[in-house]
Design a protein that fits this description.
This protein is an alpha+beta fold. It contains six helices and eleven strands. It has two domains: 82 residues, 3-Layer(aba) Sandwich (Aminopeptidase); 133 residues, 3-Layer(aba) Sandwich (Aminopeptidase). 25% of the residues lie in helices and 35% in strands. The strands form two sheets. The protein has an eight-stranded mixed beta sheet with strand order 4-11-5-10-9-8-7-6, sandwiched between helices. A three-stranded antiparallel beta sheet has the order 1-2-3, with helices on both faces. The model has no long low-confidence stretch (mean pLDDT 94).
């Protein structure tokens, strides 16, 4: 299996295994870190392990190769076609010197603001401890966090750029590109290749990612399931 196939499972069994909560063939991050969950394969045993892991009424956010097909004991809560992209080249520091100096490091002390921004803009699952997964950087205006980006999944040779978001009142200023380039630069300096995941219908984001050097690598589906 390639490192970018079944990427959540790969992360939780390799570079981010220290975060893994496991039962049989299923793994997940602690709820406060992220809701991302995985199994070795979408088989009967995989879903049984997943059921034991999340418990009655528990939820699991999965990356699947194919659209979710109904399984006994599970409700489909939400989902969307998913696109995995990879940046084989490029991704240096921000080009605009007027913005470089406003990039700020984000961490535990900023957790509440990060959660508020992601709740507003909905770039994907984000919890009170998601910042523990890697570097996070942001831009503030009048001391308020208005844009951010960081790292999430890490597998051999690759690190995911994630939580790219900008407050609706501050879009169109180039903040997302500036922050992504900074995150990508750090990933490159560690010898990794940047990857990311995006909804296939998010044309505006995909256009930006292509301008930054990303290309399509994998098409799949995001699914949030609840154990009945």
């Amino acid at each position: 299996m390639h490192a970018l196939d079944n990427v959540i499972w790969q992360a939780l069994t390799t570079r981010q295994a220290r975060f893994a909560e496991a039962v049989g063939q299923a793994r997940r991050f602690p709820r406060e870190v992220t809701s991302l969950t995985a199994f070795a394969e979408p088989s009967f045993d995989g879903y049984e392990s997943l059921a034991a892991l999340v418990g009655s009424g528990g939820t699991a956010a999965l990356f699947l190769r194919d659209p979710y097909e109904p399984h006994a004991g599970w409700d489909f809560v939400a989902g969307a076609p998913l696109l995995q992209m990879i940046c084989d080249h490029g991704g240096g520091r921000a080009d605009d010197p007027t913005l470089r100096h406003v990039i700020t490091e984000l961490g535990l002390r900023d957790s509440r603001e990060m959660m508020e921004l992601t709740a507003l803009t909905r770039p994907g699952p984000f919890g009170s401890r998601t910042h523990e997964l890697g570097d996070y950087v942001g831009i503030r205006c009048s001391e308020k966090l208005v844009a951010m980006a960081g790292e999430r999944l890490k597998v051999p040779g690759h690190t995911e750029v994630s939580a790219v978001c900008t407050h609706p009142e501050h879009t169109g200023k180039g903040y997302a590109a500036v922050l992504m380039k900074e995150v990508m630069r750090r990933i490159r300096e560690r010898g990794d290749i940047p990857i990311l995941h995006v909804r296939q219908d998010n044309a505006r984001a995909i256009e930006l990612y292509k301008r930054l050097g990303f290309r399509e690598n994998w098409q799949g589906h995001f699914a949030v399931l609840r154990r009945v």
